[in-house]
Each structure stands twice: as C-alpha cells, then as structure tokens.
Write a structure and sequence with these properties.
The complex is a heterodimer. By secondary structure, chain A is mostly helical. Chain A has a domain of 177 residues. Helices cover 69% and strands 1% of the residues of chain A. Chain B is built from 18 helices and 22 strands. In chain B, the strands form 5 sheets. Chain B has a 6-stranded mixed β-sheet with strand order 6-7-8-3-9-10, with helices on both faces. In chain B, strands 16-19-20-13-21-22 form a 6-stranded mixed β-sheet, sandwiched between helices. A 4-stranded antiparallel β-sheet of chain B has the order 2-1-4-5, covered by helices on one side. In chain B, helix 8 crosses helix 18. Classes of the chains: A mainly alpha, B alpha/beta. Chains A and B meet through helix 7, helix 8 and helix 9 of A and helix 2, helix 3 and helix 5 of B.
Chain lengths: 345, 519
C-alpha cells in the first residue's frame, strides 16, 4: 500500500484534493477512500437500514415511530456529544450513565422548588463530578478508565441515597415549564430534539472553530507534543470531562422532564452505548481524530437498529441484545480496519 | 565594529543526578547569528544541557543569562515563549492535525467573532512553508508529509514563535541529503537574520559545513571551545573521545586477554550490504567462529542499527544475512534466533530484562520452547540450565528465585547474557554490554566475552568505551554515517587508527583497508 513515503517529495498536491479544510484526508486515493468511508460510512449504513426498514415494516416510517425514535435518541445523543470530546482527547468517561440517572433524579427532586432549581441542580452536581474527574485525570495523572469508573459507582450511590434505595420516585408536575421542555413540541418536533440539535451545532463549532477545539485534537493526537507546543493540556482535559458531566446531567434532566419523573433504573450501561455511538461515528478510541456529526449518526444508527429489531417482533428480547452486540462488533471491526489502512493506529 | 552582545550566556552550569554528575561547571556563550556546534559522546551532558536550557531540568548551580537578563525557565513552554525554541530529533508535532494547524497551534488567526480563520491560516501557512522549500497542501494532515518536510514544519514553527535562539538536536538524523541541504540554507538564513543556532550532531561533515563555533563536552565538562575551523577533524574526534593521539598503552586496562584463536574457517556470520533507509547504507560484516569483531564509530554511526538489522529486529530494505551457510529471511527475530543469533540489546531495561520475574524465569524465558515437550515445560531441565549458567557466569543472586529487578546492573546483564546463551547461539551480538555497570562487574563481563569466544562463538562487540573495543576485539569494523569506512586488523587495532578512521583522514597506508561502499 502506498503511504506517506510517496510524499517525501514536497510537491504541491493541492489540486488533487477538494476536501473541506477542516477534515483530515489522506494523501492517496485509497487513503482518501478509507477516510471517506470511516467518516461517512455510518451515515450510509443508517440511510440503507432506514430505507430497507421503511419498505419492510409499515410501522417504521410512520410519524409516530419516527418522532418517538428522534426523542429517545436525543438524550443519548447529548451524552454522546460530551463523550466525543472526551474520546478525542484520548480519554474515556464511564460515569455518564450514572450521571444521567443522577441528573434525572435531581431534576425531579428539585422541580418542586421551581424550574430553575430543577435545571441548575443536576447541572451543578454533575458538572462538579465532571470537574473532579477532570482534575484527577489531568492533575493527578490517573487513568481515565479508573477515575470515571469510581465516579460512576459514586454517582449511582448518591442517586440511590436520594431515592431511599430507589423506593422514592420524584414526580415532575404536569404543566410546569420543565415538563413542557421535556414533553412539548415545536413545529411538530419534540423540544429535546431541538435542544439536542442546537447543542450539536454549538459542539461542532467549538470543536472545529475555536482554539479549545484545536487543543482537544492536539491533546489526543500527541499529548507530549501538544504540551511542548504550548497547548494547555491539563486545562483542556479538565474542560472535556466537565463538559461531559454537564451534558450527561442535562440529558438526564431532560429525560426526567420527558418521563415526568426521575426514574432511577435508567442510565445503566448508557456510558457504553454512548461510547459505541461515538466509535461508530468514526471517532478514534485512541484519540486525535473524530467528528461530532459522526456521533449523532452513531446514536441514530443504534436507535434505528434497536427499533428494527423491535419491529421484527418475533425475535426474543434476549436475542435483540445479541444482534445489537454483533452489529456493534461489525462496525468497530470495520472502523479499525479502515483506521489501519490509513495508518492511524 | 564590536561583536554583537551575547544573546545567551551560560556560566558554571552544574547538574547532578543520583550517582552521576551530568554537568560540571559548563560555560557556553552564544552571539546573535552564531551557529554553534555542541558535541560530545553519549553521557557527555549534551542532552542535560539542552534540557536545562529549555526548562525541563533545573540546574543545581550556575546561571543562564538570556538577552541580558538572568532566566530560569520552569517549563519548555516558558523557554519557548521567551525565545528559545528547540527542534527535537523526533518530530514533536501532532500527526493527525493538518500542516497549517500544526504550524499555528496556540496562535491561530481569528475572525472578529473569535472563531478560527482557516482561510487566512492556510494561506499564511502556505506562504511561510514555501520559504522553507516545502510545497504541500497545508490542509493535509501532517503525517502525510515526509519526515524531512515534517522537520521543516517544526523548524518553521520554532522560528515563527519569535525565537532568538534555536536549538537543533540531531535534526538531520532522518533526513535525505537533499533535505539536509534545504535545512542548511534555512540555518544560514536564520544566521543572517541574527538568530543564534545551537546545532547538535555527530556527523562531522555537517558540523564543518554549517557551524562556526564549537563546544565539546565530555563527562559533563566543557573540554574545548572555540572556532570550529581551527580544530581539525582528528583533533575534534580525539577531544570528544578523550584520547590523546599517539598515546600508547603498554598494558591494557581491561580484562580482555587480547587476541583469540579465531579458527581460520568459514565465517559463522556473513552480513552483506545491509541497507535500512536513513540508517544503514550497505553495511557488510563477517565474523568467524571464535572471533570478536568490534563495531567502531561515533554515536549515531549505525552501530546499534547494524546489530539490530542482523538480528532481524530492524527490517532491512536490501542486503542479506547468512548464518553458518544458511541465508536468513530478513526482518524476522524468531528466524534469527532459530538460526543461532542472539542480541544483547543496548537498553537492558526496556528491551531485555523483566524485572518482576525471577532470575530463573528470566534466564529460561527465551529457551522455554526448547525446554518443553508438547507444551509442557520440564522443570528439571530448566533448573539444570539455570544452575549451570548462574555458576558459569558467576551471577550473584540470593537464589534462582530472586527477582531480577533487585540485582545490580552487572548481574542483570549477566542474567540477560545467560538467557541468550541458553539458546545455544552461534553468534552473539553485544550492544554496549558493560554500560552502566560497575567496574568489577565490567571486568567480569569482559572476561566472559573472552571465554565465550574461546568456546567458538562468533561475537560482535559494540562499545562506546574505546579501550574496551580495542582490547576486546580481534578486528574492528569502523562505521560512519551508516556506512563502513574502514576495517582495522592485527597491529592496527589501536585507538589511534580508530580515531583517524572515524575522523576520515586516515593515511592511505596498510593501517586501514578502505572498504569501497560508494562504488
């Protein structure tokens, strides 16, 4: 395979590429193709699966089903947005599932004191846990895996103590602003979906167009070099874990508003779903390369697959997980293969 | 006109690490527009000096004055901001980011909205790089560039940050000759712009081509400084290695017996035309059974690479390795081991011992497949071999079950040696076998090398210790910039001829047999 060696001659290759300046592309046709598939492959699969599903199942392309899928995707997508930042820096955040549940319970619990408290409380607590995660990872140089695993256990414990081991379920009053935020629609689309889309646009701009975003890529690409080049490595790491915590808390709060109660059993395994979505979307688990848009596609793909399996109906619910797992493995294998072709890993 | 005031003045710099005096009262003065060669062998203190200058280490004593003010940098970033940029041997950029973003990271142009201005960034990056002879699509990720072009990006970045002093640590080690030319023209441009350059390299040709002044470090001390043109190559090499010319030793200081009775038979190892891009250019070495062949040359001349290429640890582009008549397929370590080649690596910590395992386990590690039948390891056979070698190599351990990490450096080295001897090798490649071990252990290892050769092993010895190399070897093959430049045999195996050969001004006598490598 022809790789970097061919570029030893520093001649201009500008005319041969038409890629957006912000997207890393390869130098050879094969590399460029791999890059394209890695970046947009998930989108292509999403389209194909959706088209097939809508022909195969009458109930798939109905507005009810689509609306439902979109709204339930929104919460995971918000969590995956934060996870994208963390993974691009080369880290991982296992605490988001617990923070999601904790955020929901805190929002429901706080809703009796008004919407402001119901929103600020989960954001404050989950954001703070994110800050602690970031500090431990960046300053104490502990492994992100362990730090966020501890946060995951701790946050779940906190949530259980708030609900008396899950015996208490706090409700969100109908008609409150919070409930409206979670359940209402604007132009026929659920409010959480709009909010999620706004966050993704903002996230993409931050990641692609700000210095902070550059630092996120730099830290994940080569931490030592980034430090030597003057990137604030520690600050960047603290910020991404804080962001991940905040977004997980927000997603939890919105989800609680949607369900009108803080459901304690939610969020189990959500961190893994979020990581899967990010990886499916073309972000490298080793860091340094990734796309916010890819993560959104990854979330949608996961949700569509789940929905399709539900539509089949005849499939035992246990086997649904087997199919999901096999599909995920397939996608990750494809991504890894493409990454190797591009000599990224 | 008076010479311009100094931009950097280092005075009496000292730095001690546990057990090592890395820098001992070193002075170095740089004027604007001066290209200064900083040279010295391994452990001379070059890296420590650079690291003190760039804020990685704090000095124990001495002062650094930069642009008239006394400074003490806490981090490389601080040094960089003040105007001291460093270009490392390995390119320290971010491969997945685009060329332009690498160039501008941390000082990206922004639009009025505070967002990054990519159009301007790419345009300026292209303009800047063109002046460095690099014409690439700056939107491409950095990794798609050749090493030379990457090095240029690093250089452009270093200079663009308003550097007054640029330190280049072996910048040419991975460059093509044409790229080296471009680098030199950039250095000359920096010089003309009044920027001082500290140039670290082991390639004498380069030093003389581009440097004006020189500082030679040895064992943490400055042993020479002045104009480079006033120092002949031979003087430079002898100053660096710390050997007076014509210094004759009646009696060796090492424990080597001197000559071995190399069987006048077919070589047990024949390596021919080993070529590794950027590293080796057609190196040939042959070793007969019972012979110790030394590999001479300065740091970076390709000694370690030669050993690694022979042992299959470094893939070769062309050339062949023949062991006892059987040709090896290149690039396979297991294949080389099976054929009977054992390499004792230079860095025993990272490439050799497993500190958490016992002496017994470390010795048996490589030989396990040979000591087992149907996947079951015969404990009795392991014990037998381990005990044999502990005795034969005089390994001092409380028991075979002591952890290797707890042993002294010398004994660790012996354990490694035992591991490879347990493989029953025909050829032993020793890369700096006595580095970092105490004098007593050193003598024992040297004696062992002798004994092994007596037993009929072919030994390739790499050592930066000239005495050890000269007294331990029957022949010395001299490398320079990845090619064989001479071979010393018989009477000519002396420090004198070795240094002359390295310096490249060996008289055309029988002293050196010039080996034609460039046709």
């Amino acid at each position: 395979m022809t790789v970097t060696k061919t570029d030893n001659t520093p001649v201009t290759t500008a005319s041969t590429t038409s890629a957006d300046e912000t997207e890393p592309v390869g130098s050879t046709r094969a590399e460029r193709l791999s890059a394209l598939v890695q970046q947009h492959g998930a989108l292509a699969v999403l389209v194909i699966v959706s088209v097939i599903a809508s022909f195969s199942f009458d109930s798939f392309a109905t507005s009810d089903n689509v609306t439902n899928m979109a709204t339930s995707s929104a919460f995971l997508a918000i969590v995956a947005l934060g996870m994208t930042f963390v993974i691009i820096t080369g880290g991982i955040d296992l605490s988001v599932g617990s923070l999601f549940a904790l955020g929901g319970v805190l929002a429901a619990w706080g809703s009796r004191h008004g919407t402001l408290v119901a929103l600020l409380l989960p954001l404050g607590v989950c954001g703070l846990i994110g800050v602690v995660n970031g500090l431990l990872v960046a300053r104490s140089r502990l492994a992100p895996f362990i730090v966020t695993l501890a946060a995951m256990l701790g946050a779940r414990g906190l949530m259980l103590s708030l609900t008396d081991e899950g015996a208490n379920t706090y409700l969100i009053a109908k008609g409150s602003f919070l409930a409206e935020l979670g359940q209402g629609t604007t132009l026929g689309v659920g409010n959480p979906v709009w909010l999620m889309l706004a966050l993704f646009v903002a996230g993409a701009v931050v990641l692609r167009r700000t210095r902070f975003g550059q630092h996120v890529y730099a830290v994940g690409g080569n931490e030592d070099a980034a430090a030597l080049m003057g990137a604030p490595v520690a600050r960047t790491k603290i910020l991404v874990y804080t962001l991940s915590g905040l977004l997980a808390g927000l997603a939890g709060a919105l989800n609680a508003a949607w369900l009108a109660s803080g459901v304690t059993i939610l969020g189990n395994g959500m961190e893994l779903e979020a990581i899967s979505a990010v990886v499916i979307g073309g972000t490298l688990l080793t860091g340094g390369l990734g796309y916010v848009s890819g993560s959104l596609v990854g979330v949608l793909l996961l949700k569509v697959i789940q929905n399709v399996i539900n539509q089949i109906g005849s499939l035992d619910s246990s086997y649904q997980q087997v199919v999901s797992g096999a599909f995920l493995a397939l996608v990750v294998i494809a991504q890894t293969y493409l990454g190797r072709r591009r000599q990224l890993v | 006109m008076a010479p311009p005031a100094e931009v950097l003045a280092i005075r009496g710099l000292s730095k001690t690490f546990p057990g090592v005096r890395a820098l001992d009262g070193v002075d170095l003065v740089l004027r604007p527009g001066e290209v200064h060669a900083l040279i010295g062998e391994n452990g001379a203190g070059k890296s420590t000096l650079i690291k003190v200058l760039t804020g990685v280490y704090r000095p124990d004593a001495g002062t650094v004055e930069f642009q008239g003010r006394q400074v003490s940098f806490a981090t490389p970033l601080e040094a960089q901001k003040a105007g001291i940029s460093t270009i490392y041997q390995e390119v320290n950029l971010i491969p997945l980011l685009s060329v332009a973003r690498n160039l501008f990271l941390g000082r990206e142009p922004r639009t009025r909205l505070g967002l990054l201005d990519f159009a301007r960034m790419n345009r300026e990056a292209e303009e800047t790089l063109r002046t460095y002879g690099v014409r690439v699509d700056v939107r491409q990720p950095l990794r798609t560039l050749g090493v030379g072009a990457q090095q240029m990006v690093a250089l452009a970045r270093a200079v663009a940050t308003d550097a007054r002093v640029v330190i280049m640590d072996e910048p040419t080690s991975s460059l093509e000759p044409r790229e080296v030319e471009t680098l030199f023209s950039v250095i000359r441009r920096l010089r003309d712009a009044g920027i001082a350059v500290v140039y670290v390299s082991h390639r004498l040709d380069e030093l003389y081509a581009v440097c004006e002044t020189v500082t030679v470090l040895r064992d943490g001390r400055r042993v020479h400084h002045g104009r480079l043109s006033e120092l002949s190559r031979l003087d430079l090499v002898s100053t660096m290695l710390g050997r007076e010319l014509g210094e004759v030793r009646a009696e060796g200081l090492t424990k080597f017996s001197g000559d071995h009775h190399a069987a006048d038979t077919e070589p047990v190892l024949e390596a021919e035309g080993l070529t590794v891009p950027h590293k080796l250019h057609g190196v040939s070495v042959s070793i007969r059974p019972g012979e110790v062949v030394g590999l001479g040359g300065l740091l970076g001349s390709g000694r370690t690479e030669t050993a690694k290429a022979i042992s299959g640890a470094l893939p070769i582009r062309s050339g062949k390795v023949v062991v006892a008549g059987t040709s090896l397929r290149g690039g396979s370590t297991p294949g080389a081991i099976r054929a009977g080649i054992s390499l004792l690596p230079e860095d025993r910590k990272s490439e050799g011992i497993v500190p958490g395992l016992s002496v017994r386990e470390n010795i048996a590690l490589a030989a396990l497949p040979r000591l087992s039948r149907f996947g079951m390891v015969s404990e009795a056979r392991v014990d037998k071999i381990v005990n044999t070698f502990i005795e034969r190599l005089r390994i001092k351990a409380s028991s075979p079950h002591q952890k290797v990490g707890e042993l002294s450096g010398g004994n660790q080295q012996k354990v490694l040696l035992a591991r490879w001897l347990a493989m029953n090798p025909k050829v032993l490649l020793l890369d700096e076998p006595t580095r970092g071990i105490d004098v007593g252990a050193k003598a024992e290892v040297q004696k062992l090398v002798d004994e092994l050769a007596e037993d009929g092993l072919g030994v390739l010895l790499i050592s930066s210790d000239l005495e050890e190399l000269i007294e331990g070897s029957d022949r010395v093959v001299v490398l320079k910039d990845g090619a064989v430049v001479g071979e010393l045999t018989g009477e000519d195996v002396t420090e004198d001829t070795l240094m002359r050969t390295i310096a490249g001004d060996a008289p055309a006598t029988a002293a050196t047999k010039e080996v034609a490598t460039d046709g």
